[in-house]
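Technical annex, item 7. During the second reporting period the consortium partners agreed on a shared format for inverse folding records so that results from different sites could be compared directly. Each record opens with the tokenized structure and is followed by the designed sequence. A conforming record, contributed by the partner at site C, is shown below for reference.
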């Protein structure tokens, strides 16, 4: 290559670098998922697997966080270092310092993921001690996952506290839900909007009498009845996976009165909810998922309903065709018959190749 051509290539590279930086300027913190920057500039991690990422120089740093709710209790976060799982840590209401040891002499990217879900309260990220470095949010494909406890990763992590011990959320690990595993497999960013026990027209142990259902909380930032803070939907997904129905089909606790499953209510609510999804992401490709927790005749009816919904929505113009995806041969081994981490990996191993065909 002659000198003139080398100078041209070098100048072009500088221009490309400048353009990328202008579009995605370096920042101290990059957030993903349902988060909120609070008045004191701390960051509330709200939804399952919501996260904050930052750069660090040096051989260690300390992540500072606390658990905040209407009552005093702990939460959990997962620390990821340079794209690799590092640890799952309990976060107290009084505040917790998490020491992260790093390979010296390198720049590192640290991500803090909320391992628990929105209904367990908020994890407030209060900052990090150490030599921080700016990070650049690189453009990636985007996947939204809307679901219930399975999407939250409820009951999937038995590494520390066995089922039946501790609090109901002590086995939560949203980082290893099938949804984030699938997204990471595809190199995509993701947002989870999921709440344990929630359904499309009724919840696990409530026939929509006392509790809100997903269509009523989806637009609220904190995924509850508080409509004073709305989710901004700035994350516009290329694909939206909806996994709701496990709780609609549930018999509840067997003590509280439970009406028979209504196929018509389920289908009608689902079709209406999809309209809400399209309102914020009109070009997203929607995939309807069944559940490894619903099988037998209920499982067959579940898939029948999803296909009814698909056919009904696909009659309407102006959007990509809706798809139905069914998980096969996944038997849950986690708490309360939820998938454990290995089951989540098996689900992701089925789902990721399917989504790859849609995310070109």
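Designed sequence (site C submission):
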């Amino acid at each position: 290559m002659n000198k003139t051509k080398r100078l041209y290539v070098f100048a072009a590279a500088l221009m490309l670098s400048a353009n990328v930086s202008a579009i995605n300027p370096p920042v101290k913190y990059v957030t993903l998922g349902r988060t909120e920057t609070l008045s004191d500039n701390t960051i509330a991690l709200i939804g399952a697997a919501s996260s904050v990422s930052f750069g660090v120089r040096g051989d260690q740093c300390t992540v500072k966080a606390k658990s905040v709710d209407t009552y005093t209790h702990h939460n959990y976060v997962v620390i990821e270092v340079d794209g690799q799982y590092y640890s799952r840590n309990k976060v107290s209401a009084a505040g917790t310092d998490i020491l992260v040891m790093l390979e010296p002499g390198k720049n590192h990217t640290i991500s803090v993921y909320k391992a628990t879900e929105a209904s367990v309260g908020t994890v407030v990220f209060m900052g990090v001690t150490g030599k921080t470095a700016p990070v650049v949010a690189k453009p990636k494909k985007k996947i939204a996952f809307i679901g219930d406890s399975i999407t939250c990763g409820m009951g999937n992590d038995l590494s520390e506290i066995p089922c039946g011990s501790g609090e109901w959320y002590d086995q939560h690990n949203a980082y290893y839900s099938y949804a984030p595993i699938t997204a990471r497999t595809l190199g995509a960013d993701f947002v989870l909007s999921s709440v344990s026990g929630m359904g499309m027209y009724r919840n696990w142990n409530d026939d929509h009498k006392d509790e809100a259902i997903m269509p009523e909380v989806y637009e609220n930032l904190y995924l509850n009845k508080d409509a004073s803070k709305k989710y901004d939907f700035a994350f516009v997904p290329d694909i939206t996976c909806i996994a709701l129905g496990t709780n609609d089909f549930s018999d509840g606790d067997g003590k509280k009165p439970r009406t028979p499953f209504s196929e018509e209510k389920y289908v009608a609510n689902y079709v209406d909810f999809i309209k809400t999804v399209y309102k914020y992401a009109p070009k997203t490709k929607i995939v309807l998922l069944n559940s490894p927790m619903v099988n037998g005749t209920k499982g067959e009816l579940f898939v029948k309903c999803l296909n009814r919904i698909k056919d009904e929505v696909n009659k309407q113009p102006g959007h990509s065709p809706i798809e139905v995806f069914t998980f096969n041969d996944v038997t849950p081994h986690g708490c309360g018959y939820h998938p454990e981490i290995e089951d989540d990996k098996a689900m992701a191993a089925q789902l990721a190749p399917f989504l790859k065909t849609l995310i070109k």
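The first strand starts at residue 30 and ends at 32. Residues 1-22 have pLDDT under 50 and may be disordered. All partners now use this format for quarterly exchanges.
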